[in-house]
């Protein structure tokens, strides 16, 4: 392997979204990149910890960053949008508030350097893969797609400084590199219902339903995502979405790593496509 980077899977990529981890690791391997999982990592607190305590909400992601630095890592790949958001915002807050940083470091009994580079999946691909993706593409991804970024990849913009706030383009550009037609649409950063997936499925059906319908109306053959929560809501909650829309929809919701993996010749099985609730008919089942 030529490059060795840290890898923080977070809770979702070890459970309901294991195909996201599977496809990310498989894609990295094609490009001779070794993703090393941070040892003894913990939950980042996602979108719930701040409801209990700011100290807890800060300490959970801070510990992950401290462990990564302790293990000699200078860059970590964080595919989950919620995890990426929490780690990035926490590092910013710690670096801006010396008292908070000292208190959290004392709680954790770990030093907090605050210099580790946190990469979301698009930043990782852009930095280490995009320059070679076209030469590695053996099966162009020739579908019409819409790229769905969701809420957390681009917000808060003043901290993350990632892409354009209302009309991000990074995922669209990467999809075009592998042969896809990336359609313009108005739901790129709309909320899918996020953590209401279990407690208020009706809200998820309404919000996600609008996203799926707009994709369908524009002629998309796939919705491309980079967030396990978004993928779960748009894919797993499809019966509720179809009930809300009163139509049957069959647009698959794929991770960008799965789409790019298909383009470089990885099989559906290697990319975990069999785990999707709405299967992409254009991909071989093997």
Describe this protein's structure.
This protein is of the alpha/beta class and 286 residues long. It has 2 domains: 119 residues, Glutathione S-transferase Yfyf (Class Pi), Chain A, domain 2 (Up-down Bundle); 143 residues, Rossmann fold. The chain has 13 helices and 8 strands. The protein is globular, with a radius of gyration of 19 Å. The mean pLDDT is 94.
Task: Describe how the helices and strands are arranged.
Blueprint: E1 3-7, H1 18-30, E2 33-37, H2 54-70, E3 75-77, H3 81-96, H4 98-108, E4 117-119, H5 121-128, H6 130-136, E5 144-148, H7 157-160, H8 170-177, E6 181-182, H9 201-217, E7 222-225, H10 228-235, H11 238-245, E8 253-255, H12 256-263, H13 268-271
Parallel strand pairs: 1-2, 1-3, 3-4, 5-6, 5-7, 7-8
Helix pairs in contact: 1-12, 2-3, 2-4, 3-4, 9-11
Order of helices and strands: EHEHEHHEHHEHHEHEHHEHH
Structure summary, number of beta strands: 8
CATH class of the largest domain: Alpha Beta
Report the biggest beta sheet as strand number plus sense, adding barrel if it closes.
Answer: 4 strands, parallel
Gyration radius from CA atoms, angstroms: 19 Å
Helix/strand-derived class? Answer: alpha/beta
- How much helix, percentage-wise, in residues? 40-55%
Low-confidence parts lasting 5 or more residues at pLDDT below 50? none
List keywords for this structure.
286 residues, alpha/beta, Glutathione S-transferase Yfyf (Class Pi), Chain A, domain 2, Rossmann fold, 2 domains, 4-stranded parallel β-sheet, 13 helices
